[in-house]
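Handoff note, outgoing to incoming analyst
You'll be picking up this chain. Sequence as last confirmed:
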Amino acid sequence: MTASLPPRSIVDTHTHTLFSDGVGTFEQNADAALAAGCRVLVATDHLTLPRIMDPDGEVQVIESELVAHRAAWEAARDTHPDLECIYGFECDWYEGCEENIARWSAGAQVRLGSVHWLGAQDDGAWIDDSSNLSIWEELGPDEVWRRYSDTWCRACECPLFDTMAHPDLAMRFANEGFAPTIDLAPLWDQMVACAHDTGKCVELSTAGWRKGVGDYYPAQGLLERFFRAGVPITVGSDGHVPGDICDGIAAAYDHAARIGYRTVEVPRADGSWEAMPIA
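Most recent structure output, in case you need it:
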């Protein structure tokens, strides 16, 4: 059995490499994690993006690369014995994706569920692509939020996911002219109920600060609702460059503790999960 982690150990449950839309190798990410004092590092490259969303396979691990992806991760794990490396994927949800997730992520210990795409596989749009804001301009932020929360709840119902990444990604452009005007509380409450009822963890992500959101994902008000509902959390950087690996993790623990959380959920190399004390 894997020994329990010391309280407040640095753990990063959301990271990317050049196999998807990151720039670092597994080796470089592991080096950066050790330099940051990390004890557990979870690799979560993108998987199962719709073809129209990524037609050339530039930002995800395509099926033909899965063997090479696993081999590169294992090589980094073996050369970093002081770092507990966990193999996983960030899997985008869309209608009919479950069979692909199950097949392509076979052998993964962690599956992050996420929503970046609204609409059908062959007719939709990114919600966090700064180079194409057409969906925000055409629908407006209120309607984007309504569709996002509905899609997120459907993703939450997928039994393959362990934790739900950046729950309020629809805040991405709130400080760039696309802030919602409606009261988000009913949508947040719907999302909280879905996470609670499906037994999901949700991710406290430090990436919101790097993206100009001015808060974590989820925003404080949503995180407070998750806490009151008893929804457990994981913590991740969503680092896409080695320098962002473990970014802000310790501060995120403090933030979660102020809201009331006393533990965060951590996957372990033996396949178990551990509630690690943070306060």
